[in-house]
Write a structure and sequence with these properties.
Layout lengths: L4 H7 L25 H8 L14 H14 L3 E5 L2 H12 L5 E5 L4 H10 L6 E5 L15 E7 L11 H11 L2 E5 L4 H4 L9 E5 L13 E5 L1 H14 L5 H11 L2 H19 L5 E5 L9 H7 L6 E6 L2 H11 L4 E2 L9 E3 L11 H6 L6 E5 L5 H13 L2
Parallel strand pairs: 2-3, 2-4, 4-5, 5-6, 10-11
Antiparallel strand pairs: 1-7, 6-7, 8-9, 9-12, 11-12
Helix pairs in contact: 3-9, 4-8, 10-14, 12-14
Bound molecules: pyridoxal-5'-phosphate.
Length: about 400
């Protein structure tokens, strides 16, 4: 068996049927047959391998999980109907009333809502730590702290968190570390290398990569995944076989796509650095990026997201978006099509001005998910739109 991600994302396939199909078929079935009563008993008793019911497992979902476990160097995993279902189940299965979560301040909007409005109802508390001040993290750990939850790079500010440092904190205080690796993908970084226990993904983003289906995945330590699997089997957030089939097919091109997203994003960021209409341009692999050294240390390339601040703030940023001719105005990311988002008026509009400030979301901030179009066309559209602001 090959050790290479490119090969295994293509070659790890569900077992073929007697029809000898080359491409794995879609197993649209809610349940699975047994040959006799004894086989039914043995499969239910975990003495024999095999699918029972698609809320538990399904060949398409299993294939996808096998690939993601390989890519993330994880022991086991479970797949969900969306990224948020994966984040929710990972926490709900492992935390109990009285536990405390130390979270990076800059987490996905819905993750922030889970911490502040959902888990708080059940007596699970949290503190937010500042990615730019790692020296303050340890003082936020309490006796009841059970979990560290982070995203690196963060959305949309592209703040990085040193995974090695988080691994040290975890060992010292015996915590469960959960990393949302959605922005980097396992092509650019594998948090498990640094002692991370669980890696979660919104497979909706780069894993599908073509803006078609939602999906979520958590992979990591076998004992923790067992608890998450128990929780999920009985609460029902499983990924549909169709979505698993789509995403597993997409993984066949993940490394190629991510490489090209990064190449286009770097070229765009380099070009925009000299644009007079901008206050700043942020991209992890630009030498001007405040955490450039850390980016080089833990990421293979800078990722597909570029953020910049338009001079003139909120109104200028919206004018810039209205001047675009090709880029899509939508809130998704990781798509083949380049996408532009104005976080202050959309994805992060529910935050208070203070909360936005704390996560670096200034009124003029723009997030571009750089797609796979010819980069000259992406640059041309953004430059002409900026010239007219
Ligand atoms: C989109 C996203 C999620 C949520 O995933 P869904 O598939 O939309 O539920 C979680 N974390 C990050 C970093 C994301 O970008």
């Amino acid at each position: 068996m090959s050790d290479n991600k490119e090969t295994q994302a293509i070659r790890l396939q569900a077992q073929r049927s007697q029809n000898r199909e080359h491409s794995v078929p879609l197993y649209l079935t809610s349940s699975f047959l047994f040959e006799d009563a004894e086989q039914a008993r043995a499969v239910f008793a975990d003495e024999e391998e095999g699918s029972i019911y698609s809320r538990y497992s399904n060949p398409n979902v299993d294939e996808l999980l096998e690939k993601v476990c390989f890519l993330e160097k994880a022991e086991d995993g479970f797949a969900f109907s969306s990224g948020m279902a994966a984040v929710f189940a990972s926490m709900a299965a492992l935390l109990k009333s009285g536990d405390h979560v130390l979270s990076a301040r800059a987490v996905f909007g819905s993750t922030h809502q889970l911490l502040t409005r959902v888990f708080s109802k059940w007596g699970i508390t949290h503190s937010y730590a500042d990615a730019s001040a790692p020296e303050t993290w340890e003082s936020l750990i309490k006796p009841e702290t059970k979990m560290i939850l982070i995203e690196t790079p963060s959305n949309p500010g592209l703040e990085l968190i040193d995974l090695e440092f988080i691994g040290e904190l975890k060992r010292k205080h015996d915590l469960i570390v959960v990393v949302d690796n959605c922005f980097a993908t396992p092509i650019l970084q594998t948090p498990i290398d640094y002692g991370t226990d669980l890696v979660v993904h919104s497979a909706t983003k780069y894993m599908d990569g073509q803006g078609r289906v939602l999906g979520g995945i958590v992979v990591g330590r076998k004992d923790l995944i067992e608890e998450i699997r128990f929780f999920s089997r009985h609460t029902g957030p499983a990924m549909s076989p169709f979505n698993a089939w789509v995403i597993s097919k997409s993984l066949e091109t993940l490394s190629l796509r991510v490489e090209k997203h990064c190449e286009n994003a770097l070229k765009l960021a380099q070009t925009l650095e000299n644009n007079e209409a901008l206050e700043f341009v942020r991209y992890p692999f630009l030498p001007s990026f405040p955490q450039y050294e850390l980016a080089k240390k833990q990421m293979k390339a800078g990722g597909g997201i570029v953020t910049f601040a338009v001079k003139g703030g909120y109104d200028a940023a919206k004018r810039f978006i209205d001047n675009l001719q090709m880029l899509s105005i939508t809130s998704n990311l990781g798509d083949t099509r380049s996408i532009v988002t104005h976080p202050a008026s959309t994805t992060h509009s529910k935050l208070t001005e203070e909360e936005r400030q704390a996560t670096g979301i200034t009124p003029g901030l723009i997030r571009v998910s750089v797609g796979l179009e010819n980069v000259a066309d992406i640059i041309e559209d953004i430059t002409q739109a900026l010239a007219k602001v």
